[in-house]
Backbone:
């Protein structure tokens, strides 16, 4: 287990050979987002057999556009490394930002070909999870 301290964001990582889980506690914003990007990038580089990167978001306080940008960068890097990214225990503030920006499906969907690899025998992961489509929310949106 390793800890990456910051004044407003604390990251704790638990590693195995094929799975890394990084717990976020605090704000993922302009001042702290690079800390998460650096930690995730280091884990990807250090573990050539890594199959899954889990970001535990239960302790996430707030997130701004820089934090969102870092999540998108991590998704690009995990896709390039053929590693499955999972955003777990997402708080409402994160889901709202991802929905409003249209990035919820991108950040939470399985990469192409990953559905069958992460499922049990005879079932597709895509068949076992319910997809919730994003829709506009605001005064100009229609129901």
Residues:
């Amino acid at each position: 287990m390793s800890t990456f301290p910051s004044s407003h964001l604390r990251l704790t990582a638990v590693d195995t050979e094929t799975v890394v889980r990084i717990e976020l506690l605090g704000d993922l914003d302009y001042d702290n987002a690079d800390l998460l990007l650096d930690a995730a990038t280091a884990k990807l580089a250090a573990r050539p057999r890594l199959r899954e990167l889990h970001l535990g978001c239960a302790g996430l306080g707030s997130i701004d556009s820089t934090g969102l940008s870092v999540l998108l960068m991590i998704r690009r890097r995990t896709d390039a490394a053929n590693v499955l990214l999972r955003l777990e225990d997402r708080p409402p503030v994160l889901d709202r930002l991802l929905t409003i920006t249209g990035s919820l499906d991108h950040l939470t969907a399985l990469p192409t070909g990953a559905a069958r690899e992460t499922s049990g025998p005879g079932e597709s992961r895509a068949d076992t999870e319910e997809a919730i489509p994003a829709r506009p929310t605001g005064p100009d949106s229609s129901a």
In short: Residues 65-80 form the longest helix (16 residues).
